[in-house]
Amino acid sequence: MQSSSEVYQNFVNGVWKTALSSNTYQTLNPSDFESVVGHFQKSDAADVNEAVSSAKTALSSWKKVPPPLRAQYIFDVYFLLKQRNAKFSDTITLESGKVTRDSSEEVKRAIDALEFASGDGRRLKGETIPSEHRKNIIYTIRKPIGVIGIITPWNFPIATCVWKIAPALVCGNTIVLKPATITPLTAIRLTELFEEVGLPKGVLNLVTGPGSIIGEAIVKHPDINGISFTGSSDIGRQVYTESSRQFKKVQCEMGGKNAVIVRPDADSALVVDSIVKGAFGSAGQRCTATSRVIMERGSREKFLDALLGRIDSLKVGDPFNPRSDLGPISHRAQFEKILNYIELGKKEGATLIKGGRADGLEHQKGYYIKPTFFDEVKPQMKIAQDEIFGPVLSCISAESLEDAVKISNDVPFGFKASIFTSDFFEIMNAIEDLDVGMIHINSPTLGGEVQAPFGGLKASGAGIREQGTAQMEFFSEEVVVQMNYSKKN
After folding, report:
1. Model's pTM, two decimal places?
2. Are 291 and 416 in contact (CB under 8 A)?
3. 50, 115, 253, 466: which one is catalytic?
4. Is there a catalytic annotation at residue 253?
5. 2 has a pLDDT exceeding 80
6. Could you confirm whether 287 is annotated as catalytic?
7. Which of 10, 305, 388, 398 could crosslink 403 through cysteines, CB 3.0-4.6 Å?
């Protein structure tokens, strides 16, 4: 694939411009690391200051625009993205390595999020509350937080941007967006759509560069009133701690170590299909990916052979090839991290049934890893505790449903869990006992729907959830008004 020499710029106060330092960096195509995707601004704290100043200036007029009119910009971007679905899908595949099927699904998720948030322009309502005093009325209104710092990850370069930006704008906030260092192009293309629909200058600003510099500058900036972060739990802990110290409103959506519990009465075809999708879709690079399968006694014999056979059928290759099921890992550091965990799993005593680095000729210039399956994994092994964030699935045995739930809960994370059974009573007991933010019954651990809250517990999430009605709760502040119309105290 031919390299690109194009230089992309920051977007500040309605203008595309170079970083104040004039420094740039390049990103590589993960399916062909000899191919350059583009050159991007290597911004620093001075660029963040400029973007924040722009957002702060724009806030005074933007927050006075009626919510339905603010939402119209979101709706206009919704129509443009629907028209350009394929182009955005190709951009995601180019810079992140997702197969086109997964990229198209991500764009669809972003389209849904835009549609849902645009409706909130006419749903941004409060409530009336009876007062104990005569001729008094109490009611609530929602006001914007102010300037929002948005920090997004590399694994969902458009969906996470959209489901943060859209509700933030509808609520009347202005934004400084810092996209992931290795996948900034998709965010730039999205920002171009907002420019195209005429969003007022300064309302949305984009600054690219290293997270250690740009992210820190955003989190610590005194004129940023709220932070919405998606990324690793280690970085999220730092973001949450620093933001809380400054009394910023903050939400963090972080990692997962999601488990699928398989009971002996489960439907075999459904179990196998769901586990494979959950573990190996997007090459396992999802916070909602299935990382552990916990099989009760009696389940292994029924499901394991079929599961391994299905894994064998998966094709690893060029993400633009429609026959590929898995593309490359998105960047070198993550690629090496996953390979190190595979070696660690073997040293810990787990049995590597299949997987590891893909070594075909077509894989030589990309960060390719085959679907990897470990058996005989003990619950306290590192590969069963740590978020690997790759196509690595660990199989753990359990004595009973109670034991399986205990194993599922016994990790630092609490994002998702799934249980496969037709036993209603066991389902209800599991729902009560699973220590996660999202529970799936007879379905994969993947994704969610935009009209429902999204996020986890423990090291998987902090602050108010994303999406659903929760998104408006986070991106606005509730103000109570008490009015006395009696002309006396």
Report:
1. 0.96
2. no
3. 253
4. yes
5. no
6. yes
7. 398
